[in-house]
Design brief:
By secondary structure, the chain is mainly beta. The chain contains two helices and 14 strands. The model is unreliable at 190-205 (pLDDT under 50).
């Protein structure tokens, strides 16, 4: 018994230290699930020049018990020689709010995220080509940016018919079985209808 008691005490101490590490001291980081869909369209609200918009749905979560505050979230967009920072960030399922800080716990936050270029005096046109999208987060208290994921999608020929219209959107829905995005072109009169009912109008593949 004299030998067992110290061993049991040592094991209990180790368990307490491990519990304290995982619940108090270990901060972990922020992660994101693969976006279930990504969409390209133009935004005409309150702008002299229409603005390119990319919106998507994903789950953000913390790998630590204490969680993190995301100070800013943005997309790096690259197509051929073109590159643009889409850092005007809004999020929400029904009503959009300007992204200016979002607490992410271990349970996560799942919602739609909308991104526009920060510059409003020029137009980033969506044309045929392969687009690389990288979701990047800036956490409060951390100087280094965190890359959450990077994907590529192909906008097909004639998706926007060389024009800029609020009626047109290109959707990319993720297929877990095929392990790729399936692109479809929407031509609807209502943005909200297209946003919540991303059905196929004319398939690009």
């Amino acid at each position: 018994m004299d030998t067992v008691s110290p061993i049991v005490s040592a094991i209990a101490l180790c368990v307490s230290l491990l519990t304290a590490w995982f619940t108090i001291f270990r901060r972990g980081s922020v992660r994101s699930t693969h976006p279930s869909f990504v969409a390209f369209r133009y935004d005409f609200v309150g702008k002299e020049i229409p603005q390119a918009k990319i919106f998507l749905r994903t789950l953000l979560f913390s790998t630590g018990k204490r969680g993190w505050v995301i100070e800013s979230l943005f997309l790096r967009v690259q197509e051929g020689e073109r590159s643009e920072e889409f850092s005007f960030w809004g999020y929400g399922d029904k009503e959009l709010v300007r992204g200016s800080g979002l607490f992410v716990s271990e349970n996560g936050v799942v919602t739609n995220h909308h991104f526009n270029p920060l510059t409003t005096d020029t137009l980033f046109r969506f044309k045929q080509g392969t687009y690389k999208l990288e979701l990047v987060a800036k956490l409060v208290g951390k100087e280094q940016l965190i890359s959450l994921w990077s994907i590529t999608v192909d906008i097909p020929i004639g998706a926007f018919d060389g024009s800029i219209s609020h009626r047109t959107a290109v959707y990319f829905n993720w297929s877990p079985e095929q392990k790729r995005y399936i692109g479809t072109v929407e031509k609807r009169s209502g943005f909200i209808h297209a946003l919540y009912n991303p059905q196929v109008n004319s398939a690009s593949e």
